[in-house]
Amino acid sequence: MYLPGIGPRKAEVLKKEIDVVSYEDMLYYFPFRYIDRSRIYTVKEVREIAIQTPVDGSMPQIQLKGKIVSFSTLGDGRKRRLTAIFADHTGSIELVWFNSLKMIQNTYKTGVEYILFGEPRVFNGRLNITHPELDTEDKFLGGEVGNQGQYRTTEAMKNIFLHSRALKRIVISILELLKEPLTETLPDAILDRFRLVSLDEAIRNIHFPASPQALRNAQYRLKFEELFYLQLNILQVVKFRNKKLGGFCFTHVGDYFNSFYANNLPFELTNAQKRVVREIRKDMNSGRQMNRLLQGDVGSGKTLVALLSVLIALDNGFQAAIMAPTEILANQHFDTISCFVEGLGINVCLLTGSTRKKEREIILPALEAGEIHLLIGTHALIEDTVNFNRLGLVVIDEQHRFGVAQRAKLWDKNAHPPHVLVMTATPIPRTLAMTFYGDLDVSVIDELPPGRKPIKTLHIYSERRKNLYESVRRQLQQGRQVYIVYPLIEESEKIDLKNLSDGFETTKEIFPEYRVSMVHGKMKPAEKEAEMQRFVAGETQIMVATTVIEVGVNVPNASVMLIENAERFGLSQLHQLRGRVGRGADQSYCILLTRYELSEQTRRRLAIMTETNDGFVIAEEDLKLRGPGDIDGTQQSGIPFNLKIADLAHDGQILSLVRDLAQEILDDDAALENPEHALLNRQLKKLNRRKQTGWFMIS
Ligand code: ADP
Ligand code: MG
């Protein structure tokens, strides 16, 4: 059954672009913001707003009331566009369309009064509005209320006129078709206890708020519901797993651990490291399978914690594995750890994509025979041909590159799943960790080893780079190494690569007495690896690169990081990049180079970077500035359903509330079998099944 105005083509686009295939999906496609449409501006006022808006800042969406004075068509071929002059009694403004020019010109008439809605911008010094919404006053939807919902739409949707207003019409027709109130999704007991409005009331008001208070009530109820089911789901999984999967018991600490501690450990552990090792020991001796996330800022010494955990596994007669996301990192772990455990009689091997066949033929049987104690490697570790004898612990470094599926695959390597320790340097705010890694316990190393000098971060305008090069040269003269990082994103890949190679050439000219490496993601892995190794070995002193160096590489001698076009990087990314320096005893520097004109948000981002080195502060700020959707790895982290309305940056309080509620319910009835929990059980199953079919199917 098709909705009014939704033929097969539009249905297809709705499905592809916003994953809406049913009435219900559409009702759960909420406005992303609300605009006060009780206000109508004049062209003169818009001009005043435009003057106050920074060059790259966007202007608010506004409403005008006026008439189209004239149309004209400009340009040829792909550049063809339709423009119109729109005027009210205070002045005129240009309207522009790039698509469906014929249809626009046939629909809108000169001399008729329209209410216009759109986002003005200044282009070539002139004020215009691209693809505005125009309505005659009688057709104008719901103008009586101040708050008007705006729906997010994509280019592909706009191209076939599925803009915000069209979506609003679809929602109206669905609501009109409903014969009865929407079926409630939360039990009455919960509605009463937390004073939530009904689903029906919430859905109607989220789309068409009857008042600001009604909108707030609707938002609260829907966020509550969304986070509640999410927590119920996660906590149920945790309960189930704890019950079902017994873990190996690592009861004692033996010779490997003790002699390492007494003889090989080159420094005192930090208090944070000690605490975390205790937490891990306790976990591995609990009889339950450990699933622990170890968060620690770059350079906080996670590798050592991993190693100590490995030693406990070995002491209990088990094998261990450490898995890294790249070969460079796997190699580095192998080198570091082999060095650390020298003389202890531990057999450590390395297995990556580049391991030769001959070597594999030695490693694999030895692994199966239990002669290898610790295997370090990349994805190669989870290939089917790799079989352990008694795998007791798996450490996964830099978690965000591994999906849940890959984690699960490692478990399969045993009848009994091994303990799993996941390490990440991407600090995850508490609310996010609770949501996305709800099935993992979390340990935090919140202390850097002593003697580190905090990295000094400076923001410098590109125009002033001359002086900068002299400072960089002084560092090089002291034998330090330098990173120069360029942005590279897919959308502007060609230009970005050109900038990178120009930068490479310029760098060679500026520092003719030093050797320069270049690494980027488009190079063949082997080439990249080789070039990286040259820098690691100190054969080259300057590394010009893209963000491929972001993850985990350890070159303690590198003391300067220059980030070109820093305005194009996100906060977390800048922080990760910065973590590549400051790993030795010397004072390190991170220089953020940008052009002079920047938006407020960008300035704020750069200011945060210069103010703090604390990854958690940065992660919290990042979450506030960008929203959680962009946080690395959330896609693959196994979150069972997408958040439609809750915002983890701001809804931490609701999250804690519903987590306690979910816990309370599950403590009492983990399988949700009590009749009073029937609705919860049904709804949870339904959400997990994702796309449903039924009376509300559009196509
Ligand atoms: P990350 O947490 O980023 O993986 P690493 O484990 O690579 O950090 O540690 C960074 C550096 O700090 C390494 O050179 C390591 O040997 C050193 N380190 C680790 N723990 C300590 C400590 N307790 N005291 C001094 N140096 C330490
Ligand atoms: Mg590391």
What does this structure look like?
The protein is of the alpha/beta class. It has four domains: about 1-30 and about 150-245 and about 650-699, no CATH class; about 40-145, Nucleic acid-binding proteins (OB fold (Dihydrolipoamide Acetyltransferase, E2P)), CATH 2.40.50; about 255-445, Rossmann fold, CATH 3.40.50; about 455-610, 3-Layer(aba) Sandwich (Rossmann fold). The chain has 24 helices and 22 strands. Strands 6-7-4-3-2-5-8 form a seven-stranded mixed beta sheet. Strands 12-13-11-14-15-10-16 form a seven-stranded parallel beta sheet, with helices on both faces. The protein has a six-stranded parallel beta sheet with strand order 17-22-21-18-20-19, sandwiched between helices. Helix 19 links the parallel strand 19 and strand 20 (about 540-545). About 40% of the residues are buried. Bound molecules: adenosine-5'-diphosphate and magnesium ion.
Query: What is the fold named in CATH at topology level of the largest domain?
Result: Rossmann fold
Mean pLDDT: 84
> Do you know the CATH architecture of the largest domain?
3-Layer(aba) Sandwich
CATH superfamily caption of the largest domain: P-loop containing nucleotide triphosphate hydrolases
CATH class of the largest domain: Alpha Beta
Biggest sheet, open or closed, and with what strands and sense?
Answer: 7 strands, mixed
Portion of residues in helices? 40-55%
Total helical elements? 24
- Physical arrangement of strands within the biggest beta sheet: 6-7-4-3-2-5-8
Number of strands: 22
- Overall morphology: globular
How much of the polypeptide forms β-strand, as a percent range?
A: 15-25%
Domain tally: 4
